[in-house]
Amino acid sequence: MIAPLSIPSPDYEWQIWEINLFGWQLNIHMYALCILVGIVLAVVMTSRRLTRRGAEPGVVLDIALWAVPLGIIGARIYHVLTHPDDYFFEGANVWNPFQPGAIWNIWEGGNAIYGALIGGAVGAWIGCRMTGIRFWSFADALAPGLLVAQAAGRLGNWFNHELFGLPTDLPWGLEIESSNPAFPAGLADGTLFHPTFLYEIIWNLAGAALIILLERRINLRWGKAFAVYLIWYGLGRSFFEAIRVDPSEMFLGVRVNVWTSWAAVILGIVLFLLQRRRHTGDEPTPYVPGREWKGPDAEVDSDETESDSDSLDDGVEGENSTGETAATSSSRSTSA
């Protein structure tokens, strides 16, 4: 029996929007749209935060051109490697992107955030090297926006009817149709499940707010804000992952993503303590030494300084000339 406050899954018609353009059909997947919205939110938030710290406006886009594509590639590779049974079996369509189930079809779901972090970190490092931005400065500016982006992406899992948790009697249980391939065998029709997508959305948004509030009280520069992100997300994800029912690779009886979550927590703690000891002061600039952006005001100031210097030189020359003339005149008068 469905609980009064249970969360219904969206109609399957919401998964894909079909748009006809001049006889050509364009399919827009809600999952992909949610990821795109998350990317836009992360870029906007990161850009505003980094610009306030002294970076050139728009420099985040130069970094995102590397980080986003490599993040998406990393997310897909990690998912495929941790869910090999979903893609590599007899008769499976692995390579053809025009058929369902291919490893390239990211719009069908299956993008792992930990793979996105690894691939995105490589892309961000390349982008930071090219723009002169400190990698940890970018990571700190990104931290809350990354959590907001992940929250938006989790909404896509809801549209795809996927990644739900264990059965529950809680009133806010998620409704999943028994015809769903991921529906556990042996359970009755109408069984409710933990809405792990909603849990993670709330957890991620709370984490973004926490980082922003902590920054007002303590120094979270030099990679420490990103360390808080790793700790917060790793703790939450380790729990949400443990109650999911979808199949995943196991190691020593524990899901691989749980191990990865614990590794993220440990990495975050080590990074925070290490950077806290190495960098006790504030971050003077988000740029590496020698590659600072001086801004348009600096150019104007430079021109004005040069103009003032020229005027000063002219004045000094005029003063010297006047002095010499006066001295010469006085000499002639005395001589006469």
From TrEMBL:
It is an enzyme of class 2 (transferase). Keywords: Cell membrane, Lipoprotein, Membrane, Transferase, Transmembrane, Transmembrane helix. Pfam families: LGT. Its EC number is 2.5.1.145. The chain crosses the membrane at residues 28-47, 59-78, 112-128, 135-153, 197-214, 256-274. GO terms for molecular function: phosphatidylglycerol-prolipoprotein diacylglyceryl transferase activity. GO terms for biological process: lipoprotein biosynthetic process. Residues 283-336 are annotated as: Disordered. Pathway: Protein modification; lipoprotein biosynthesis (diacylglyceryl transfer). It is a multi-pass membrane protein. Residues 321-336 have a biased composition (Low complexity). One of its GO terms (cellular component) is plasma membrane. It is found in: Cell membrane. InterPro entries: Lgt. The keyword Transferase applies. A 1,2-diacyl-sn-glycero-3-phospho-(1'-sn-glycerol) binds at R154. Residues 298-317 have a biased composition (Acidic residues). Belongs to the Lgt family. NCBIfam families: lgt. Catalyzes the transfer of the diacylglyceryl group from phosphatidylglycerol to the sulfhydryl group of the N-terminal cysteine of a prolipoprotein, the first step in the formation of mature lipoproteins. This is Phosphatidylglycerol--prolipoprotein diacylglyceryl transferase. It comes from Agromyces ramosus.
